[in-house]
Design brief:
The structure is a single chain. The mean pLDDT is about 95. This protein is of the alpha/beta class and about 220 residues long. It has a six-stranded mixed sheet, with helices on both faces. Helix 1 crosses helix 2 and helix 1 crosses helix 4. The chain has two domains: about 140 residues, 3-Layer(aba) Sandwich (Rossmann fold); about 70 residues, no CATH class. Helices cover about 50% and strands about 10% of the residues. The protein binds magnesium ion. Magnesium ion binds next to loops.
């Protein structure tokens, strides 16, 4: 776990969803794969052509020293409006087919939510975020869920983080953003004045109550 700029007394946490609140490499690959397939169909080209184009766009960003970005933002650069990305995701991604209840996650989030409000910021649409949280059995812990369709801007755009701060009614400096991608989940939050925690395994999420020195509640 890497951390940046942690407030001495955080008053709220903002979580990423995919590959943060669950670990499921096959589902992560499925989500990317099915969206790239849909993009290829829209462009009327072979999947390999679209894959090569996206790889070239990411390489070009690296060459220019730009941070990595989301598939939604790359698609936007190719002329696919965010509303279309939202519709494709709602049509193609069904979290309940992949995710199930996670008792250890529930235990950790119970402890965290007993101390401060929890928010979720995801590049998936809000409906997919809600069904993912339902499938994991942790929906009740989140007082604010911000999906791609709430701002029309995809992380690393700062807009969804700023909206979460407003919805939680807490200033950015009182918040910590927690996610698995530094460029997408952490950097834009730091730019707004939040703290950041980069996690690399679900085990690190289970350990957050002790990492943040919080009492464990088992209710
Ligand atoms: Mg993620």
């Amino acid at each position: 776990m890497r951390s940046w700029n942690l407030p001495s007394r955080p008053r709220g946490l903002i979580f990423d969803l995919d590959s943060t609140l669950y670990e499921h490499p096959a589902y992560a690959r499925f989500q990317t794969g099915v969206l790239v397939e849909r993009l290829a169909a829209e462009r009327g080209e072979a999947l390999e052509v679209t894959q090569a184009l996206l790889a070239k766009m990411r390489e070009e960003r690296r060459r220019l020293g730009e941070a990595d970005t989301s598939l939604g933002n790359l698609s936007l650069a190719l002329g696919v409006p965010i509303e279309t990305s939202v519709a494709w995701r709602e049509e193609l991604i069904h979290p309940e087919e992949w995710l199930g209840p996670d008792a250890r996650l529930d235990e950790a989030l119970t402890a965290l939510a007993g101390n401060f409000p929890l928010g979720l910021v995801t590049n998936n649409p809000r409906s997919i975020a809600l069904s993912s949280l339902e499938a994991l059995g942790v929906r009740r812990h989140f007082s604010c869920v911000i999906g791609l369709d709430d701002t029309g801007h995809s992380k690393p755009d700062p807009a969804p983080f700023a909206l979460a701060s407003r919805r939680l009614n807490l200033p950015p400096a009182a918040l910590i953003s927690i996610g698995d991608r530094e460029d997408v989940d952490i950097r834009p939050a730091l730019a707004l004045g939040m703290g950041g925690l980069l996690i690399s395994t679900i085990g690190e999420v289970y350990e957050l109550p002790s990492f943040l020195s919080l009492p464990i509640s088992r209710t």
